[in-house]
Structure formats: C-alpha cells, structure tokens
Amino acid sequence: MRAQFVLSEIGVGLRRNLTMTIAVVVSVALSLALFGGSLLMRDQVNNMKGYWYDKVNVSIFLCNKADAESVAKCSKGAVTAQQKKDIEGDLKKLDVVQTVSYESADEAFKHYKEQFGDSPMAGSITPDQMQESFRVKLKDPEKFNVVATAFAGRDGVQSVQDQKGILENLFGLLNGMNVAAMLVMLVMLVVALMLIVNTVRVSAFSRRRETGIMRLVGASSFYIQAPFIMEAAFAGLMGGVAAAGFLVVGRYFMIDHGLDLAHKLNLINFIGWDAVLAKLPLVLAASVLMPALAAFFALRKYLKV
C-alpha cells in the first residue's frame, strides 16, 4: 500500500466533509475532556480521603451540670473525676486507639471563642456550659463503631461523635458530581460515535465510484477501508489533543494560577501534575481507537460495492 495515496485520500475525505469533521473533533474533545476530568476527580476524592481520614478524630463529649438537667443520658449528673480517669484508661487499652487527648471546659471555651467570637451568641456562652471531651485518634478510621459501642451508653458520657461522618457527606457530594460528569460524558460519547458513523457513511457514499473501481481492479477490503478508518482516527486524534489541552489548561488555571485554589484552599491536598500527565496517554489512545473502531464497523455495512 502506498502511504502517499492513503494520505491523499485522507485529505480529500476530510475536506469533503469539513463541517462534520469539525463536529466530530468537538464532540470527541468534549467527551474525552469530561472522561479525563472524571478520572482526575476520582483521584482527587481518593487523595482527599487518604489525607483527611488520617486526621479525623473521635470525640467523646462528657456530661456537665447543664446536661444533667436537659439530657437524658446525663440524668445521673455531671461526669466525676473518677469516671474521667476510668474512661481515659479504658480508651488507652483499646487496640484500635492510637492516641488520646483531653480537652477541658476552659480549653473548649477558648477554642469556641477563637472560631465563633464574632457570633451574637458568643457573649452568652460561659466556660461552665462547655463540655469536657476526649479526642481519640484511631489507627484505622473505619473502626469508629468499636469506640462508639464501648462508650456511647456509659455513665458520664453525653455523646460519641465521629468526624469521619462529616467528611462522608462532603465526599458523597463530590462523588455525586463525578457520577453526573460521567453521565454527561457518556451522552457526549454517544453523540460523537453517531457523528463518526454518519461522517464515514457520507464519505463512503461520495466516493462510491472510486471504491467500486478499486474493487474491480482487485484491491483488498482493507486497502479500500484504510483511508476511511484513518480519516476517523485522525479526526479523533485532533479531538484527543484538544481534550488533553483542556485538562492541562484546566489544572494550570484552576489550581496553580488563575483561580489559584492551591493557595486559597490550602487545607485541600490537590492532586499533582503527575496524575494529570498519567491520564493524557489514555485520553489520546481512546481518541484514536474509538473513532477507528466505529469507522471499521460502520464500513462493514456501508462499503459494500
């Protein structure tokens, strides 16, 4: 097969169906950009989980005098010094516990003032209304139920709270957004495949005379089909390059510069360039293989001469 002939046929086909080729390029670019973005979002969520789950604590809040009057679990009165000592000792005996730290009512009040000092309610809160607590660092954040089961109904304990539950709501929202992006990507992918099939059909129909002559002189099916397949692959590759560009520019603009989220949201451990660069070969490979396979199966039906 002469490469020059195949390349010339590719150029002819792309020029004849320029509008549909542009539509294919745009559709492939958008669908693969969403595909790559979804993969990066999944990596970001997993990265955040690994970062924050390692920092979450279990908080065991102890009863105070105010709770004794309003909370059923504290009906026996405020926590005693002996109860605090027993709770701390039992916590340190658990295999799942890494560290235990105690926060007094005065320390809790100080932290409250630091965080909510500007709130109208801040002036009405006194240190004796704040709860003492134990902050428990677990070796495995998934083992929260071990601590909750052991201390939730204990005398002197008002409640056991897991900070991981708060993070689960955030990660649930992020995962929901990721699923929505994947659904949009699938719709765009279907549109792109339909455009590719229609483009190949139009191209094959417009050149049916040439392909008929080639068949009569003994050209193989692959020799006839190759220019059409390569046209689709080339259009897809242009879309893949555009999608890769969207991912690179998006990462650069949103995190490093422009919106500069890396500095504005320094509590979030953003994914690095290595994660972005690792997705680009997959995006480019998909941009070539997807149109080529779509064109191949379309030609089996529409290129019968």
TrEMBL record:
It is a multi-pass membrane protein. It holds the Pfam family FtsX. Coiled coil: none annotated. Gene3D superfamilies: 3.30.70.3040. GO terms for biological process: cell division. Residues 56-160 form the FtsX extracellular domain. InterPro entries: ABC3_permease_C, FtsX, FtsX_actino, FtsX_ECD. Keywords: Cell cycle, Cell division, Cell membrane, Membrane, Transmembrane, Transmembrane helix. It is found in: Cell membrane. Forms a membrane-associated complex with FtsE. Part of the ABC transporter FtsEX involved in cellular division. Belongs to the ABC-4 integral membrane protein family. FtsX subfamily. This is Cell division protein FtsX. It comes from Streptomyces xanthochromogenes.
